[in-house]
Amino acid sequence: MSTVSATDMQVKQLDKSGKAFEVVIKPPSKDPSEVKLSSPPRSPTCLDAKTIQEKLEKAEERRKSMEAETLKKLAKEREHQTEVLSKAAEVEAAFAKKAQEELKKKQELYEQNQQAQRQAKIERLKEMVSYKLRGRPFSHVCMKEHISTHYGKQDLQLEI
Fold this sequence. Notes:
The structure is a single chain. The relative contact order is 0.04. The N and C termini lie far apart (140 Å). This protein is mostly helical. It is 62% helix and 8% strand. The chain has a three-stranded antiparallel beta sheet with strand order 1-2-3, with no helix packed on it. It is elongated and about 145 Å long. It is built from two helices and three strands; from the N terminus they run βββαα.
């Protein structure tokens, strides 16, 4: 068995193939000169009234700057909120206007369709009246009454 020394450990070979080792760590030394604890260098602490006042003033400045930053951030958020609300109001107004226009167009189209249907019925009734008058006696006054009661036309001009 051969022994190999290192600075803080020993390695012993257990077999000749080199596959088994024993590592022995050196025990801690009892010499206090080897153990050195280092502390960070200390700055001279002068706690006179002048330095304390300077520190207080710097702290007050930091507080004021932080407060100013907070107020600035809040003002920016409020501005953003008002912008968002105004944009939402604009979008809503545009949507309402578009919906109103579409509704108006639909109502106009409905009225036109109703008018066209009424006119078509009146034309059919006129044809029916002329047919009836040709084939057998039929009173056009009676037909006028029928049209005015069912279709709301008081001043209907029938051409016979």
